[in-house]
Structures
1.
Amino acid sequence: MELLSDLASPIIFGILLGGLYVVIALGLSLVFGVMKVINVAHGTLVILASYLAFFALSQWAVDPILWLLPGIPLFFVLGLLIEKYLLNRAIKMSADAALIIAFGIALIIQNAVQIIWTPQSRSLITDYSFESFQIGNVYIPLVYILDFAVALIVMLAIHQFLNRTYLGQSITAASQDKEAAELMGINSTRVYQVAFGIAMALGAIAGVFFGLTFPFNPTSGNALLIIAFGVIILGGLGSMVGTFIGGMIFGLSQTLGGHFFGPTGQLLVPFLMVLVVLTIRPQGLFGR
Amino acid sequence: MSEEVLLQVNNIDVFYGNLQVLWDISLVVNSGEIVAIAGANGAGKTTLLKTISGVLHPAQGSIEFAGKGITKMQASDIVGQGISQIPEGRQLFPEMTVAQNLFIGSYNRGARAKRDQNLTRVYELFPVLEERKKQLAKTLSGGEQQMVAIGRGLMANPRLMIIDEMSLGLSPLIVSELFQVLNEIRNRGITILLVEQNVWQTLKKADRAYVIETGRIVLSGKANDLMDEEDVRNAYFGE
């Protein structure tokens, strides 16, 4: 009984944290599913959103969640432009070329952020940053609950979009058979741009909620990329349901790992999980 | 049946890189016809289709559809002109349901307005698809998959439907059922261009045919006449 109540806290935190990881990983998963490219700039683009929200907060006292109103369309358009002018030509050459371009984008943004905002660690601190709820004897910060709620909303919205609209179905179709999609009148070049734009818009959301939850610095994106990568490997590359389950497993194994093995277990355990899944089921739990 | 020219291919040469695959191909499909292109594996049939549907482009020659030049158009724009292609091997979206495959068939602007009407028509032609509409396409049998492929092609609201190797890998019974459906589709005013390896069966179903060999058209005419032609009988039916 005591063990159970001990475990309540890491389990609740693991699931809520997993929600944040889902939001971070969704954009990476979407781009891979459609374009078959690992966007290694994803983590850094998420952190760019954290910094832009930080800028709006510190300069004009704009609430970070409100910043998403302009931030989501801004990142969507930024994604369209990055795909159209940087990635598209590289993809036509090879997946490796696209990987290198993405890596270059990440380096440029990291350094630009460092020049503008210094390497110092920042946080998005608001009125509600220190609010928390008590469940049993566990105190849960409000932002963790927001993280999970946002994960649910975003998953549902993306699912509805991909399954119920022409644009969403065209993305799904092009990711399964590009040539057949062209025969339906789907312009795959445009689908790639829209998919990348959506992935970036998801990145903006991820950046804000990551920044509300944890401090960040210009190189935090690298850690996020590795976590997001772990999440989608667990769940299966390109599968939305897989990404959700992968995020939950990653979050839970991180908090439970920390609970049983101390701080060193926090990232060791989730990545051991990734290795185990890769060994037993290389396509991921929900991969095809 | 009107004799209006719907599709006209004029003297096209097509290359894969430096390799010429089609030489000086010309053909005509009139509105309301079932026309067949027959020929052995590797003769260039699929290349010809990909050129008509804009996946490939000819180095020489031109293609006109309903009086409009479509030679340089992209595949994704040609569907909207009224040409719907059902590719070899069906190429369904395997992880999408039957209903989703049909839905995405109506992607082009002209077809969206007529989606419900076309869907009713598809389910009339293939009642089994309505029963299986929630199943993933990859879980269907080969014959059912071909029905989805044809249905998806109809959802594009075409004037011309091009069908590549419809009978490939299907039992003769299912093939003859599908041919009956094609007749119904034609009776509803959609022109059909069939491409098949199986020359004999194709000639029996078509009004006119072109026989293609190593990238050139070697014979053409009314399908009935071709069946009587000595060359065809010798080459394809071993008589």
Note: The longest helix of chain A spans residues 2-35.
2.
Amino acid sequence: MDYPIWDLAMGGGVLIGIVAIAHVIVSHFAVGGGIAIAVTETLAIRRGDPTLRGLAKRSSLMLILVSTVFGAISGVGIWVTIGLVQPAATSSLIHLFVWGWAAEWGFFILEVATALLYWATWEKIRPRAHVVIGWLYAFAAFMSLVIIQGIISFMLTPGRWLETRSFWDGIFNPTYAPGLVLRTGICLFLAGAFMALSALREAELSARARLTRLMAGYQVAGILIAYGGYRWWEAALPDSVRTIFGGDTPLLATLAATRSLALWLLTAYLAFALLTLLLPRAQRWPVAAIALILAAGFFGSYERLREGSRKPFVIRDHMFSNGILVGEIASLNEKGILSKAVWAAREDDGTTIGKGRAVFRAQCSSCHTLDGYLAIRPLVATVDEDMLGGILGTLRAQGEAFTQGDGPVATEKLDYPLMPPLVGTDEEVEALKAYLIGLQPSHTEEVARAN
Amino acid sequence: MPTNLVPALDPAPLPGPPWLFHLLWVVTFLVHLLFVNAVLGGSILAALAGPRTGGRETQGFFVAANSWAISFAITFGIAPLLFMQVLFGRFFYSATILVAWAWFGMLGLLLAGYYLNYVAKYRLRDGKPATAILGVEALCFLAIAAIQVTVNLLHLRPARWQGVADRAWSALADPTFLPRFLHFVLAAVAMAGVMLAFVAVRRAARGADAATSRSMAGYGLKAALVTTMLQLADGFWLLFALPEDVLRSFMRGGAATMVPLTLGILAGVVLLVVLAQITDPLAQAAKVRRVAELIVGAIVVMVVTRHQLRDFYLSEARADEQVTVATQWGALLLFLAVFVLCLGLVFYAFRRAATDRPSQGEQAA
């Protein structure tokens, strides 16, 4: 909130979503691919099966090109993007979990080194030595997931950390274990889905069917594990999170639809994978491609659901999506939001409208653009001054729920459960109202005529 | 309108002693920089390699080395970025947001540079020319270097933020931008040149074609000689282009600042002398090894100097900084244990790969 603001018409959250979803699909493939390739090569050695060995080799090139190149860069990309869009939250997470990230980096060194070594030593070293390198890669990749899952899930369910501020309570939060099971299933089925395409390149028909059935087996196992993990994850969520997308009257209909979509995609994917398991000879690349799309579709929908469920927070019950801390509401009400939001305050040219614009940039622009994503202009176009005053007053009063109570607030009981409270002095709130009214078409036309 | 645009210090305590973060930052940045130099300098030298400089072999060496070095440059870039954000996040995030599109665009350049290296690798393997591709790859990495230097300079000078917020291109107007950018590029080319010479000499000793190895080594050493000569001039340009207050504080820093700087300059001068003495690299393998040691040594002390300069740059902006420390001992031990375990496993994997070779007639993986 006190950082410079990157103006993006598409909205910063959308950009984070694009980069993050691209990365998580690739990184989960990298984890699952490592396990699946190591298992496949182990089977190839035990059975003396050259076709299995060929599949492991073909897939490992994909693993290098996709995971160590795109995966590594998009992983840095998420960091770059959240630092640009949510610097306060990034700083907060870094301060809390720097040693966790550093440990993950240790595993990442092992992951990159063994991935490159695994590819470079095909045909050059003994099979048993080669498969050991493959298993080391699989271990490193999975352990990096074990750590990062703690940080990802913390943002939605910080749990006991809110009282203890302990690193371990933050990592082993209420949705850590369910999320880890869910992601392990996703890793397995994504690897199976990618490698199924590779299996189709096998020329000999019975060998192709054998490989296809094995990959379908990975996928069915992954889907079932993911489904179990998903249900567990939902059950572990606090009520105030679950009501955003669940129950008879979800707070956010689009997120409820995302949940339904995710589960339907997973069901359809299971049907495709079972069909392939039963009839591997009937497998063709369009079927494998559809299965891959369904797999990625479920995963993308789940990620959207998880991210959307954090509203109105970026770190639940600790920091709102605009970077304001729950613990600083009272002081900002007293001193004014612009006392801290030094960059937004540059907009304050001494006029009421200028001050209002500055307050808007400080508190609203992390989610709302003027005319692009979640545009504010159409939202205020039809409200009159009294109604707007009422809405802003209610949003401001919501802050009291956070300053007066003990422990997490039942956000679902608030009038605007998906928005952070409005903070600042009376003068700032009045200025914001004047600025928002000034965005209405009638006002902009008046100004244009006057000019 | 506010005059101080530096965001407030993160209210969370530091999860470890500051000195430890500084130490980890400098050490991991050094490793990152060695890989970065190999990538940047290597891609430039590969693009410029002609038939008289071991052409295809030189290009083949650098694309093979870069397919590893790019990965490790990224991997070892993560750690210093992490430790730096713990200590100086509020300066760093502000600087990156002010040039957000360039900072974000760096990811595209990195992706393009990395994949182009693989394209060049497979083209060379198929006997096709790859000079143009290597040229574009080098341009990608040069652009990344320019963005990094821009952000680095910007995070050091909060007084310039207001101007850059109004006009983003003024981020390049820092008087130290050009000498600092050249400083890194010249060092990268010199290190990559020495690396090429070092490998060529070793290959010749193991029976590779002497004429080709000599051409490669000669090319690398010539590049190192020219860039080190330029570096000596550029180094003084950079030093005296520093803001007056920073330069004054640095010069008054006593042995702590003067020893690394003097060692760095001396290493550069000695490097130049030794490079000039090499007339036949294959017959003077010891001197080639010496220049490799000198250049790595110079980089080590220059990394220390670079780190010290940051403190002088930010001393005023951080004057009222009151850092609290609450060390997370368990988490710190977890990191150290994982780090040692993983380095041990990397060592084990490479050793196993080097020694567990099939004997004649035995099947390989």
Note: The CA atoms of residues 342 and 348 of chain B lie 10 Å apart.
